[in-house]
Design goal:
Number of domains: 1
Largest sheet: 5 strands, mixed
Shape: globular
CATH class: Alpha Beta
Helix content: 25-40%
CATH architecture: 2-Layer Sandwich
Mean pLDDT: 90
Low-confidence stretches: none
Order of helices and strands: EHEEHEHE
Number of strands: 5
Number of helices: 3
Radius of gyration: 14 Å
Length: 117
């Protein structure tokens, strides 16, 4: 299996800061039970106006499952709260996952070297 993931930078709309933080807690709870989700992390600036997302999945299939669940449960609310500044994909996504993620970005960063335990 090939791990895949992404790093996303968001600007949270000024009138949505509290609502987005609450939605983030809902999203974390949902992702925690998804099969193949290895990490699902959010990092906020002190004023919570910017958010960096780090997500990792054990396979493209797990990532696709997450995207479908996410879109159904959170998509419309999420899209109304943020402006996406960047979306970097890392790993070796399947063709189906790459096509799905092309809606957000074409920044693909295949794994070349390194390790993690």
């Amino acid at each position: 299996m090939n791990e895949v993931g992404w790093i996303v930078d968001l600007d949270i709309l000024p009138d949505q800061v509290d609502a987005f933080y609450a939605l983030t807690l809902e999203m974390i709870n949902a992702a925690h039970s998804e099969p193949g989700c290895l990490s699902y992390e959010r990092f906020f600036t002190g004023d919570r106006r910017k958010c960096r997302i780090l997500e990792r999945y054990e396979s493209s299939e797990a990532a696709l499952h997450h995207l479908g669940s996410f879109r159904e449960a959170f998509g419309p609310r999420y899209e109304q709260m943020v402006n996406r500044r960047s979306f970097w994909i890392f790993g070796q996504p399947s063709r189906a996952l790459a096509e799905e993620l092309n809606r957000f970005t074409s920044e693909l960063h295949p794994h070349v070297v390194g390790f993690h335990d």
